[in-house]
Amino acid sequence: MAQATDELQATEEIAAAQALVDPGSAEMVAQESTWRRALFPSAFLLAVLVLWEIASRATDVPAYILPAPTAIADRMVRSWSILWDHSVVTLTEIGIGFAMGVAFGLALAIPISYSAVVRNTLYPLIVASQAVPKIAIAPLLVLWLGFDIWPKIVVTALMVFFPVTVTAAEGFSSVDRNLLDLLRSVHASPTQIFFRVRFPHALPHIFSGLKIGITLAVVGAVVGEWVGADSGLGYLLVYANTLLDSTLLFASLFLLIAIGVVLFVLVGIAERLLLPWHQGEETYRAA
């Protein structure tokens, strides 16, 4: 295993060196590296599922405690219409909450990066807000906003805004001061400086926050559904747990995992499309 890993690393180093000589091959190197890196976790996951299947069939563990992966897959097929209906609800909460969290996080990051007074005032409060468990806030949101979709959206937004705020503020603040002084010397307006320098410079940092935020958005939606909901995958988890329906519980859980992974990959694809120059720099640094 160690020898295979060393050979894979050596192959990637050779490919990255070739990309330095031929810049046009940088994208191909990145794609090949992605496929190679996906091989090991995929093989590990397959091995875990095989061992799980063997253990569930070879032992006397009741099916309601540890169902076999094949039984879970069969339940997903038989109950797909129910799972899909609840998935649509959860995806709606994730999408709206994620958008609200990103907008709120960027709106906070801009004044934090521009003003030391705002930064010293808001930053400690933002950090302190993360010490409050969101599941403790959710009942209050249900009381204030009602039993509809909005408490789940707000919980999701609260989960998302923190990583976006922190990474965006770091990106806005890390611009080379000499470059800012140069732009001011030619009478560039603050708006021009922001859109031509600060915002493009901060985009890699922002996408790092978005990748963290999109996974937390799934958690936020489920937490909101646990507290008060009559639909959604989080509600379905509680419902299946109450009935000791472990195949439905695992099917809902696996679907949530798949949603989180797919959304994370979509954010990564958006980053590669919008920031091809950043991907090229990562490829060259890997050499």
SS summary, helix count? 12
- Beta content comes to under 5%
Terminal-residue CA separation? 23 Å
Helix content: over 70%
> Remind me, CATH topology of the largest domain?
MetI-like fold
Given helix and strand content, the structural type is: mainly alpha
Mean pLDDT: 84
Q: Which series of helices and strands comes N to C?
A: HHHHHHHHHHHH
CATH class of the largest domain: Mainly Alpha
User: Low-confidence runs (pLDDT<50, min 5 residues)?
Assistant: 15-21, 283-287
CATH superfamily of the largest domain: MetI-like
Rough outline: globular
Number of domains: 2
What's the number of extended β-strand segments? 0
Largest sheet: none
Describe this structure in words.
It is a single chain. The chain has two domains: 1-60; 74-278, Orthogonal Bundle (MetI-like fold). It contains twelve helices and no strands. The chain has helices at residues 2-21, 26-58, 69-78, 80-114, 116-129, 134-145, 150-173, 177-185, 190-227, 233-242, 246-274, 276-286. It is globular. 29% of the residues are buried.
